[in-house]
Amino acid sequence: MTSTDAPPTVLAVPLQHRFADELPELALPWQAEAAPEPRLLVLTEDLATELGLDPEELRSDAGLGLLTGTALPPTAQPVAQGYAGHQFGGYSPLLGDGRALLLGELVDTDARLRDLHLKGSGRTPFSRGADGRAAVGPMLREHVISEAMHALGIPTTRALAVVATGRRVQRETVLPGALLARVASSHLRVGSFQYARALAHQAGDLALLRRLADHAIARHHPEAAATGSPYVALLDGVIAVQARLVASWMHVGFVHGVMNTDNMTISGETIDYGPCAFLDAHDPAAVFSSIDHGGRYAFGNQPAVATWNLARLAEAMLPLLDEDEEGAVSVAQESLGRFRDLYADAWTEGMRAKLGLPGGLDRAVLTPLLAELEALMSSGRVDHTSFFRSLARLVRGDAEPARGVVLDLPAFDAWSERWLATGPDADAMDRANPVYVPRNHLVEEALTAATDGDLTAYQRLLEAVRAPYDERPGLERYALPAPADFGAYTTYCGT
Ligand code: AMP
Ligand code: MG
């Protein structure tokens, strides 16, 4: 027997290194740390197939080598990405992947370029004293919530797999370690532009910033290249996708929790699921993150924060927008000024669908209906998700589920009479309003069991949220609000 008979230990995955080649200043060559006892906890098979990867191969030892970054094809050039960012409004000039690596890009079966990235792969030069690791609970949390977002039709990074490393990770207690393999249309962030701008400033030339913008245009906003001002068109493109993204969060009651500029993408995908949560009680002031004392990232503040972050992007791009600084500022202001209407249009359109109303409905009828509904939902602190389903039941003649939870019944009855007069379609509502979202109490229950080694509840939750609009027997408790004794919910970052 010759050595060529030995089983392959590395998957021959055609990983590209376009980011590393085109933007070496933002790409630090780095390796993942060893995983002593890798064990696959969950694999997103449809995503694997989409990437042209074989799920069975990913389950093999060689597959685990790829998913932990410890056995890569010889042509791969894994890098830690550099970026800066405003965190809670304060500027950090150097953040970067402190516990993550970009393994490279793959061309998927639809010919789209996708990043394959690891989170929890060990320390890097960007770790700033932290351990570079991640725990099973938070990585499964990102997996289930991003899968739910994807199933809801909301642009998001996706989780290909979670692999337990066999390491213990020190947090408040000792926890089992894990690593998330994440797929994104790219990992370009607002913070990537802030970092490139600072480097360009130091170098005294704009080449890097321009190269980053060209890379972003090619990957995300190719239509910008054909315009007279590609960089202005890029900024406009990012503003447009972010307006739509944040509107879609508001529709489903999603609170990102840490909308720092390093956690906002150029692609318009939701990224970095840390202290995020879905609303139970509808409340614009809802905050779940343990460190968000001022409510900067509260549910109702998200559109305003998105605008603020986009202004930081425009600032970073300023020298690309116009040669004259004053001219550039006015171009940026004009672009940023469009966010408000783009957001309002996207939000209104989504709410129209949630209320089952026809496409051409007069704004003069729709706008006050939506404003009053918002007030009724907030004052009654109604359960965000189930309330919209109960409105569809009202259309079908069963008013009790909705009437039973609002506080101001006369106001609600007056509102619903006007709404019903516009002819809502209950079946269309059921296609726009999810029954199942990853509710906080269910996520916690599933993660606690998973951390103790039992993935049954996790798999069941995943099954529920992967088909969020189809009500199914046996999943009744997944449709219910948190029990009263669940109490105030707190989530944590960087775990
Ligand atoms: P986040 O806001 O959680 O997306 O992360 C903010 C920054 O902290 C990023 O630069 C991360 O790479 C870094 N970071 C978070 N957790 C860790 C960790 N355990 N070890 C090293 N860096 C970390
Ligand atoms: Mg982040």
Describe this structure in words.
The chain is 43% helix and 13% strand. The longest helix is centred in the middle third of the chain and has 23 residues, at 230-252. It is built from 18 helices and 12 strands. It has helices at 18-22, 45-50, 55-59, 61-67, 136-151, 190-203, 207-220, 230-252, 302-321, 325-337, 339-354, 363-380, 384-395, 400-403, 409-420, 426-432, 440-451, 456-466, and strands spanning 27-29, 39-43, 79-81, 85-87, 90-92, 100-107, 113-119, 134-135, 158-170, 174-184, 254-255, 277-278. α5 crosses α17 (440-451) and α17 runs antiparallel to α18 (456-466). It is of the alpha+beta class. The N and C termini lie far apart (47 Å). Among the domains are: 18-187, no CATH class; 191-348, no CATH class. Strands 2, 6, 7, 8, 9 and 10 form a 6-stranded antiparallel beta sheet that branches. Bound molecules: adenosine monophosphate and magnesium ion.
Number of helix segments? 18
Helix share, percent: 40-55%
Radius of gyration: 23 Å
- Describe the largest sheet: 6 strands, antiparallel
Succession of helices and strands: HEEHHHEEEEEEHEEHHHEEHHHHHHHHHH
Q: State mean pLDDT (0 to 100 scale).
A: 96
Residue fraction in strands: 5-15%
Bound molecules: adenosine monophosphate, magnesium ion
- Cα-to-Cα separation, first versus last residue: 47 Å
Based on helices, strands and strand pairing, what is the structural class? alpha+beta
Count the beta strands.
12
- Ranges where pLDDT stays below 50 over 5 or more residues in a row are none
Q: What is the 3D form? A: globular
